[in-house]
Specification:
Blueprint lengths: L1 H11 L14 H9 L1 E6 L2 E7 L2 H7 L4 H11 L1 E7 L5 E3 L4 E4 L2 E11 L4 E3 L5 E7 L9 E5 L2 E5 L3 H8 L5
Length: 168
């Protein structure tokens, strides 16, 4: 699991337009990504989900893209999604968010291969899931697709990261 997270963090730097093409992010950005990333196996495809917030957007994107992503992430719940299938298969993109007994459907934003249907072994998947409901990060929430789900139950250290002042 840690090896996959390290690979994800390494690959995130070249995932999509607007991603930083510079040296690896500072240690604080890597820590933020680690704190806000979860993974799960959906239809035999391991997907990594990063909760997009001021810290993670700073780590994932560079200007000017990071400014618009930060604004969008402050208005709704957004997750950056990345994965690479180990074999050919099918991807279902019907994701829901559940928190405190309320369920919200997600809207998919395809960056690369993050669409309903066939996926090819080794072809990277990148996208964003947006949920109109803004979650309370102090409460656990679950992202589900079919019978598979990923739980975000953030540690106090992760919540403290969000309190720190951010630079533009």
């Amino acid at each position: 699991m840690i090896k996959r997270l390290a690979i994800f963090l390494l690959l995130a730097g070249s995932a999509c337009p607007g991603f930083s093409q510079q040296a690896p992010p500072p240690e604080q950005n890597a820590n933020a990504l680690k704190q806000f990333t979860r993974s799960g196996k959906f239809n035999d495809i391991t997907l990594f989900f990063v909760h997009m917030n001021n810290r993670t957007v700073e780590a994932l994107f560079q200007a000017p893209t990071k400014y618009s992503m930060r604004a969008r992430a402050n208005m709704a719940t957004m997750l950056y999604v990345q994965g690479t299938p180990d074999k050919d298969g099918n991807l279902t993109t019907t994701f829901t968010l559940e928190q405190d007994g309320q369920t919200t459907p997600g809207t998919i934003h395809n960056i690369k291969n993050f669409k309903e249907g066939a996926v090819v072994k080794g072809e990277r998947i990148d996208g964003i899931i947006q949920f109109e409901k803004k979650v309370d990060l102090s409460h656990a929430f679950t992202i589900s697709n079919g019978e598979t789900s990923v739980e975000f139950n953030l540690a106090p250290d992760a919540l403290k990261l969000l309190e720190a002042p951010q630079q533009p």
